[in-house]
Amino acid sequence: MRRFVDNALAVTKESVKTFTYESLNNIARLINGVSALLLAILLGKSNILEGAQGWELRPTFHGPRFPRWMENGVSSFNQFIHELSVDSDSSSVDYASAEDEPDEIYRSTPSSPLSDGSGTCRTSTHINHDPHWTNWVAYIFSWIFLPARFLLRIPFLLFRLLSSRESKASLDTGSPHPRTFHPFRKVHSSKDHVVQRTIDRRRGVIEDLHLAIEIFIEAIFDMFHKAAYFVFSPFAAFRIFGKWFSSPSAGDKDIDDNVSNASVPTATLGANDPSPRERNLTLHHTLNTDARTCRDVITELGYPYEAIHVITSDGYVILLERLPRRDARKAVFLQHGILDSSMGWVSNGVVGSPAFAAFDQGYDVFLGNFRGLVSREHMDKNISLRQYWRFSINEHGTEDIPAMIEKIHEVKTAELKLSHPNEETNDEQPYKLCAISHSMGGAAMLMYVIIRRIEEKPHRLSRLVLLSPAGFHDETSFLFTVAHYICLLLAPILALFVPALYIPTRFFRMLFNKLVRDFHNYPAVGGLVQTILSYGFGGDSSNWVGVLGLPHYNMNDMPGLSFRVIHHLAQIKRTKKFRMYDFGSKAVNMEVYGSPEPIDLGEYYSLIDIPVDLVAGKKDQIITSSMVKKHYRLMKNSGVDVSYNEFEYGHLDFTFAHHEELLAFMMSRLLLVEPDLKRQSSPKKALKLKKTGQARSGVSSD
């Protein structure tokens, strides 16, 4: 009878699992099919999908491609390296959030003499978020999405419960020694977890629902199975109940502690003492989302990394990242654009990323990050949300970039004095620094150079390469035009209620992260979203869905967009001039600029004293090529050494897509700048030459 009940429960369980699994799959197929139908109805826009990097519309539908380092096809050698890094005692698998890590973890190479002072611990700048209306909105939406949150949390709670029971049951044997295969099973799964993190095996919402339903069904039928067991074996049931009510022994507690604190014997390859040593493993991100940082990408690919926390004059803490070549006399500074981060410069891996290409050419590479993260890092720990987001493009060009470039100058000067003590240059700057900027980063870089020239301060740059720079926005899509007019009309009201645009809570950022993964798993849905976004942005062919999958949009943090930045762009569009932020008051403008009107930067292009390379995209509908040509004409008329080039790219292709011709062009521009060195001999040799010269002058006088 007991066997019959067991078989009946097993058959019923598998039937229920199959029915629910297929039902969910049919719903997903229906959504994907409807999306494919809508995609086919949108005539005349197939070029949007074909223009996206990695998108192939024919012969079948393929989803938007993520970068190569996020795909599943990792080489066997790289997989071996990642597996070895888990077993090696010299590496760490602690993927804790930024708030939990000490500052030293952000350095993979020895720090420079002056970068220690700039390293500010993230925990020391953690902000106590004050109550705001966005918290109420997030609270309301959290109740609306309560069923989804419940289903997403069921798998992990049940898994922990079942795993703890299985571990206790397996250890409750007659042997006095605990069995050790559970810790090693945990270690094996942790290794798989690390490797899967490296090749981006994060789950989407549909996959989470599959897992939640399966674990829920397993738990329900496990309860029925145990109930049947108690009915058919009453004496065993009474014995189990007696163990439950009895106090646990100290030995069982020790065994439980040993299981919970699992460790793995490891040995460092090539070490003098190869005897295994135990190292505890700590794993996070149980929700299986991709929360890698730029540091993770750089170090996973085997490049050196250093993080320098820079404090601006108004108290913002921004992150300056680096691929260090400490003895290099040529450096490059890469600055991202709007709603982006330094991740964009390394998103295509070793082959297609500007940061790695510059490093391989012998440059000391610095990756800048603007203020404006959800984590709100500031020296004032109690700064309010509205106060933190009160910045425009002005602050990017007059606060962020100056602070980062001055830190670069401080660090490089100190390092080169140590590595080349017997050499000197013709000026006080022993290195050459070039800058590559994209979109809003280009506008901020132009603002920086002009304002430094007006203030008669050195800008320390030798060349500018501006990829689709912002600054002129006469021609924009219908959506952007409507948004600009709404922003201008309702600016006083919107500034009070919408200080910035970002995803407010960890749950919604996690949900967004998983939805993007579903866009990749269901290509018709991803294609529909890609087409809708391309429609909204005027037909720009950039891979919008792929960019949304970048890991800097994760549950821990993400770049936000200040309302003042939006308002500043709207002012530029209305006036058709590249000028600084208008505070709306002549008195305030007079105090800040010394004139009742903001500074028109286009009128000061004659102050630019370095070569500038402008690059535009023919398929770019965010900043059209005609707007980049407007920069070019003003610079040319002002006597600036400027060049103009066009490529068949969309707006995001300059950083996200892999284009060898663009990398070759950028590297060729950088190679035009070489350090002008004047070598000096050793002190003894110099003294000898000096005496020889004096003797010759004495002979000639005789």
Describe the structure.
Residues 681-693 have a biased composition (Basic residues). Residues 295-349 form the Partial AB-hydrolase lipase domain. Residues 108-119 have a biased composition (Polar residues). Keywords: Membrane, Transmembrane, Transmembrane helix. The chain crosses the membrane at residues 482-503. The chain contains 26 helices and 14 strands. The radius of gyration is 30 Å and the shape is elongated. The termini are far apart. It is α/β, with parallel strands linked by helices and 702 residues long. Residues 51-131, 166-200, 250-284 and 679-702 have low confidence and may be disordered. It has helices at 2-41, 46-51, 76-87, 115-118, 133-144, 146-171, 181-198, 205-232, 234-245, 250-260, 294-300, 349-352, 354-360, 385-388, 393-419, 440-454, 478-489, 491-497, 506-521, 523-536, 544-548, 563-575, 586-593, 625-637, 660-670, 683-701, and strands at 263-266, 277-280, 306-311, 317-323, 330-335, 364-368, 423-425, 432-438, 463-467, 500-501, 561-562, 612-617, 642-647, 677-679. It has a domain at 294-419 and 428-493 and 536-672: Alpha/Beta hydrolase fold, catalytic domain (Rossmann fold), CATH 3.40.50. The protein has an 8-stranded mixed sheet, sandwiched between helices. Strand 8, helix 16 and strand 9 (463-467) form a beta-alpha-beta unit. Helix 1 packs parallel to helix 20 and helix 3 (76-87) crosses helix 7 (181-198). The longest helix is centred in the first third of the chain and has 40 residues, at 2-41.
